[in-house]
Write a structure and sequence with these properties.
By secondary structure, this protein is of the alpha/beta class. The chain has 19 helices and 13 strands. It has helices at residues 3-14, 18-32, 39-61, 67-99, 102-117, 122-139, 159-177, 191-203, 216-232, 245-261, 280-288, 307-313, 336-346, 405-411, 434-472, 496-505, 529-545, 554-564, 567-582; strands spanning 239-242, 270-274, 291-295, 318-324, 349-353, 382-385, 398-402, 413-415, 423-425, 477-478, 486-490, 511-513, 518-522. The protein has a 7-stranded mixed sheet, sandwiched between helices. It has a 4-stranded antiparallel sheet with strand order 10-11-13-12. A two-stranded antiparallel ribbon has the order 8-9. Strand 2 (270-274), helix 11 (280-288) and strand 3 (291-295) form a beta-alpha-beta unit.
Length: 584
């Protein structure tokens, strides 16, 4: 290793310890002179001594008149730079202390402690990992006698072998998914629609919009998808098709970081959201190095992101507010008209996550959705809506819309100096499956406005029926007062996670929630409302009857354990479980 490489590696290893080194110097200084000058005064004295020593040597070694004034000038500049750095550092620390939330401090402390302790508890962590891996197959419903291939077959398999092997699994898995007992996940049904999707996909099986001149019809499909989605959301046809809600949110955040952040000279951008915001936003902020300011939405049991709470958190670094229409956990639509006025007042962005409601809410009557939530509001700068949910397209497409071309251009990636030629993409992905875009287009035009209206009416009526029934079930407490898609509920009588596990035994796949403990169901067309309510009443009776003697286990055990562990330890377990899901 060369000297330069050694120094670079050393500095990289020491950089995270800069604060610790500074604290160590301060402690040493205090211990050596407890009642003496402050560290700042000592630093100034050191500068003065260096300056005096250097001046004396210059007078001895050099007789030129300009050397001493030049050295004095350089010394003054050096001290000014140190002073500016100190003042800047103090201002940053002050800003950090003022705007950092208690939860941020707690999380930082726990993560730091876990990182320091990890080498000492590595054996216990490994035991946890082994236990997860041991139970993973059953938790992930993997067949114990499945065929596993870890290398290419010497000779390619025959078509009938491949098709038979996949069809056996597909028939079993699809039967379970089409039972109507899964919350969300499978939003479309019906053989006729599925056949249309298969035929369209086959037309553009190998297409790639990265080469726009090769499949111009695919590009036209994308433009028409954007225009049709923008029309129902009262916006301009400015946007693109992404791979899903997560990428739509990533793309919107990147655009705001560029236009509302970098172009305004904001080096440490911040986004404000509610605690009910989809965690895809957390992923986007982590990837793009944005500080996420999360506001607790359950303080008054409304689960809304209130404008008054947002206003208190807006700073000179705020680039965007993030709102939901509706939120995934509780199915609540944030007061977007109030947030729009706030965004307009402070000249910041406002993204509306309508990934869940983008193809339901625009088709609802005014008495169902009385307040505007889309581009009708002047403060809304971007929106996301998933075509692969209630747009009834095949999985893998979503739409991100922008208020202006400038904001969309800020989301583009372009590079003009690549040896491979000019390169530009509208999303994070390079190559994209044109077949999925064609399927999304086919879904929109085959269902049409009246079709979406009718489907939205069915979904909302089902959600309202479930909500009304939950109000009448002794032991349950409704958390979504005026649901449109998602119905959320909990219990003050028994642990709601026990109800979730009991419903799972009946074949239902519902979503457990936390902070506070609850569960929800995302209504789809395939849901049999009467069967769900019948099983729910039966499960509630079973749980209430077994409260005294039932031992803790299942989902209840998982979430109770999570509350006892630091976030980093929980993430360690989650990583190992994901490892197991990625294993064959």
């Amino acid at each position: 290793m060369t000297t330069a490489a050694y120094i670079t590696v050393l500095l990289r290893q020491l950089r995270p310890l800069a604060i610790n080194v500074g604290l160590a110097i301060y402690i040493f200084h205090r211990l050596s002179d407890p009642t003496g000058a402050s560290l700042l005064e000592s630093l100034v004295n050191i500068f003065a001594q260096i300056h005096a020593y250097a001046s004396q040597n210059v007078l001895i070694l050099h007789r030129w008149d300009f050397v001493l004034p030049l050295m004095n000038f350089i010394s003054t500049i050096a001290q000014d730079v140190v002073a500016i750095a100190g003042i800047s550092g103090l201002l940053r620390v002050g800003y950090f202390l003022y705007h950092f939330q208690l939860s941020d401090w707690k999380d930082l402390l726990l993560r730091t402690c876990f990182r320091w302790m990890k080498p000492f508890i590595n054996k216990k962590l490994q035991k946890i990992a082994n236990k997860i891996l041991k139970e993973a197959d059953s938790m992930l419903a993997k067949e114990p006698n499945r065929t596993i291939r870890l290398s290419l077959p010497k000779n390619g398999l025959a078509d009938d072998i491949i098709l038979n092997e996949l069809s056996l699994c597909a028939n079993r898995e699809n039967t379970k998914c089409q039972s109507g007992k899964i919350s969300g996940t499978l939003y479309s049904g019906g053989n006729k629609h599925s056949e249309l999707m298969c035929k369209v996909y086959e037309f553009y099986l190998w297409s790639n919009p990265l080469k726009p001149g090769v499949w111009p019809r695919v590009n036209q499909c994308e433009a028409e998808i954007v225009a049709m989605t923008a029309r129902i959301l009262n916006g301009a046809p400015i946007g693109c098709v992404t791979s899903g809600g997560t990428e739509s949110i990533l793309t919107a955040v990147r655009a705001h970081v560029e236009l509302f952040g970098k172009q305004r000279g904001i080096a440490c951008p911040e986004i404000i959201c509610g605690s009910t915001a989809h965690c895809a936003l957390n992923k986007a902020c982590e990837v793009l190095n944005v500080r996420l300011v999360s506001i607790d939405c359950d303080d008054d049991n409304s689960y809304e992101l209130k404008a008054a709470a947002v206003q208190k958190q807006i700073t000179c670094n705020t680039i965007m507010i993030f709102a939901s229409a509706p939120s995934f956990p509780h199915g609540v639509i944030d007061p977007i008209d109030d947030l729009s006025a706030l965004a307009k007042q402070y000249d910041i962005g406002l993204h509306i996550d309508a990934c869940l409601g983008g193809f339901i809410l625009p088709f609802c009557q005014e008495d169902i959705v009385p307040r505007a939530f889309d581009f009708r509001l002047p403060g809304v700068t971007s929106m996301s809506a998933d075509t692969h949910k209630y747009g009834h397209a095949t999985k893998g497409t979503s739409v991100v819309l922008f208020k202006s071309s400038d904001l969309q251009h800020a989301s583009y990636f372009s590079y003009s100096h690549w040896s491979g030629g000019l390169y530009i993409t509208p999303t994070f992905a390079g190559s994209r499956p044109g077949a999925l875009i064609a399927c999304a287009w086919a879904a929109l035009v085959s269902i049409g406005y009246s079709g979406y209206q009718q489907r939205a009416r069915v979904i909302v009526e089902a959600a309202r029926r479930i909500a009304d029934a939950i109000k009448s079930i002794d032991g349950l407490k409704l958390m979504t007062q005026n649901p449109t898609i998602v119905v959320c509920f909990t219990s003050d009588v028994f642990n709601i996670y026990r109800l979730k596990d009991t419903m799972s035994k009946m074949g239902w796949s519902l979503n457990p929630l936390q902070q506070p403990a609850a569960m929800n169901i995302c209504v789809t067309e395939s849901l049999d409302v009467e069967e769900f309510l019948q099983d729910l009443r039966s499960a509630v009776n079973e749980v209430q009857a077994s409260i005294p003697q039932q031992e803790m286990g299942g989902t209840e055990m998982i979430y109770k354990t999570i509350r006892m562990l630091p976030p980093a330890a929980v993430e360690f377990a989650m990583h190992r479980f994901t490892d197991a899901s990625l294993a064959p």
